[in-house]
Amino acid sequence: MFSKKVIAANIDRLERSQGIKLTEYPVEKAVAVYAHFLSFTRTDGKRTWYQRDDQTEEQFEFVQWERDWIRNELFLCSCSFPYWFFRYFFIKTKDAQIRRPDLLIAQRIFLDILADLDEQNLPIILFVLKARQLGISTITEAIILWIALFRRGSHTLISSAEEQKSIDMSEMVWIGLNNLPLWMAPVLTGESKARGPIFGELSSDILIQHGAMQKGIGRGSTPIAAHVSEVAYYNNPVVTIESSLLKAMHENPRTFLVLESTAKRKYDWFHNTWTYNRDAESKGMNKYTCLFLPWYVGSDKYPTSDWIRNHPIPDNWKPSQACLEQALKAELYVATTPLLLKYLGAKWKMPREQMWFWEFEYAAAMRDEDSLRSFYAEMAADEVSAFQSKRSPVYSIATQERLRSQISNDYTDYAVLGDGIDKRFHLSDYHSTGRRIVIEWMTMLGEPRRWELVPLKETPSDPFHDLFLRIWEHPKRGFNYSIPADTGGGIGSDHSCIEVLRVGRKGEPDVQVAQLYSSWLPAIEMPPFMHAVGAYYGRMMEPLPEAYLCPETQLGAGGDPIVHQLTKEGYSNIHRMRRYDMAPKSGSLPNRLGWATTSWSRPLITQTLQMAIEYGWIRINSDRTVEEIENLEMDEGNDGKLRQDHSSHSHDDSYMSLCIGHWCSHDEETLAERKAGKRPKPKDSEIEKPSRVLQTAEEIMANSIRMEERMIHEPTDEEMEFVY
């Protein structure tokens, strides 16, 4: 069908069985002979027949070379789709010309995948994410028609999202049928434009259906081939496709199924199906073969010569930074995608004409965020950015691009071992021989605590082993460190997240320097991890060698064991939350350890971090954090208030941790001070710290007792209300 090896083997088998020798004629020869047969083709608008000028219709006969030609071509076309496609399939161009198709780069890539599956004698089941106007629908429609013509008894199906779109798409089949040479054309026993053609003598048909059908497509039949277009726009793809069509098609080497679409939005059925199958490829668990065809593959369409003539590149034009970044992303995607590399070349770079086309369209799309999201989906440099959020994002695309460009891959992953940490978290299979980092601590009772950070030889690929501490930067003298935490259940859903922020000094941004991000670490097991990380990053802090801990401890958050256990161990540098609209009691500290995210405090921390990100006051190194930021959306609650929230099927655990850590590190700063790059001094009435680093257990215990004494007072009703 598609593979040169398979085609050659089929031709050889046919030649031996028929006792003939077939000849593969060049396209030019086929064009000339097609014109010859066309010269004596007659029609009255209802039927078509052959008749030479000097004969009646009844007298017509083929001469010998014509009979030989027809037999040769029918045999070859039945063995080879490419042979038939370039010689006998016709398309209608945008300027209304009927002609044979050119083979576009995207179509060559598409055929390459088909050939590979054909050679392995596997069913062809493709899931295609593509830009528009790349010719994939055209060549797929041609394949459907070819199967119906040359595979007797083939029940085939084509479908688009809506009924009229399906009919419009099927027009390619009708154009192909109407321009076949008469000696190849099948007898039509059904030719409804809405239902599709039926070839009774071949026992084949092409059924036209659509994604708005309530009962689904393919029900009551067993299609051997199907083309399902624009699947991202189907009303209910689970019913229409999964429960209907896929159940009706039984996988075998003759199966041909192409589901294709441009992207619509993140986390819809199309995106989830794409992501699952992409991730499952490495394990051999994918149902579909995924293929992404970006816009820049269509160099003849994006842009056309007419477009360039109408919008010539200015002599003094230089690509913007946004354009250069997109071109670089595209270059990287091509370099890491073997199929694109094969056809675009190892040294491919985006041509200047395509960069100008991108920037021209980008400037037009900048008028509003919806247009810009649509533009990025249609003109995506890679498959990840092809999917955009359906709701308004919290952060603009420009900000998302800036954050993604700042992600750092200069890190080391460490297993955390030591007191209180269970062996199942040790990641022993991944340990390397690199230098271990020893962390020591003395409790109030004089009991030693010891942990080790063990470098890993590789990052675990199994999410169950996502229990490592990723470090971009080790502690530095002269800096303060804050460590917020968001706790999870440890059952593979939400994440337990420990972030480490290097708090910026005058005029410097905060920097995310370490992260532990795991969906398999339960909150109850987090205290020793927090203790170890706090002791490590606080070792050079003065006057107290403890990083500033800010775990979330609101009712149900799960952070209470962290503050409870660490205070019993003598750890005292923990955030104390207060109401900022209430005057503090003289001589006392707030009684709430940790941070409580409530209806009034959530906007406080999320809006503050949003401002810090927009102003560049924080540097984010983690790709996981940036991915969460990209998936944040503005959601309107029942009370009409807007709230930042993660999109469906995504998370915001790292982001919320940073919100907490950033706020707790800067809650005493005014906006004027922040913009001026100043840091206010802590108030003596609110924080009491020793004048030097605590060294002994007695000193640690004495400091803890002094702090507890300062807390003894009766909380007001208002203070209790905001906590629980």
Q: What shape does the CA trace take?
A: elongated
Using the coordinates above, name the CATH class of the largest domain: Alpha Beta
Name the average pLDDT.
87
What structural category do the secondary elements indicate?
alpha/beta
Query: What fold name stands as the CATH topology of the largest domain?
Result: Nucleotidyltransferase, domain 5
End-to-end separation in angstroms reads: 68 Å
Counted up, domains total 4
β content, as a range? 15-25%
Uncertain parts: 679-697, 704-724
What does this structure look like?
The chain is of the alpha/beta class and 724 residues long. The protein has four domains: 1-88, no CATH class; 104-293, P-loop containing nucleotide triphosphate hydrolases (Rossmann fold, 3-Layer(aba) Sandwich); 297-388, no CATH class; 412-680, Nucleotidyltransferase, domain 5. It is built from 23 helices and 25 strands. The strands form six sheets. Strands 13, 14, 15, 16, 17, 18, 19, 20 and 23 form a nine-stranded mixed sheet that branches. It is elongated and about 115 Å long. It starts with a helix and ends with a helix. Residues 679-697 and 704-724 have low confidence and may be disordered.
Keywords:
eight-stranded mixed beta sheet, alpha/beta, 724 residues, Rossmann fold, single chain, 37% helix
Question: What's the topology here?
Answer:
Elements: H1 4-18, H2 27-39, E1 41-43, E2 48-50, H3 64-79, H4 81-88, E3 91-92, E4 98-99, H5 105-119, E5 124-130, H6 136-150, E6 155-160, H7 163-178, E7 190-192, E8 196-199, E9 204-210, E10 225-229, H8 237-248, E11 256-261, H9 269-280, E12 289-293, H10 305-310, H11 321-335, H12 338-344, H13 352-365, H14 369-378, H15 397-405, E13 412-418, E14 437-442, E15 448-455, E16 469-471, E17 480-486, E18 496-503, E19 510-518, H16 527-537, E20 548-551, H17 560-568, E21 576-577, E22 592-593, H18 601-615, E23 618-619, H19 623-630, E24 632-636, E25 642-646, H20 653-666, H21 671-675, H22 697-711, H23 717-723
Parallel strand pairs: 5-11, 5-12, 6-9, 6-10, 10-11, 17-20, 19-23
Antiparallel strand pairs: 1-2, 3-4, 7-8, 8-9, 13-15, 13-16, 14-15, 16-19, 17-18, 18-19, 21-22, 24-25
Helix pairs in contact: 3-4, 5-12, 6-7, 11-13, 13-14, 15-19, 16-17, 18-20
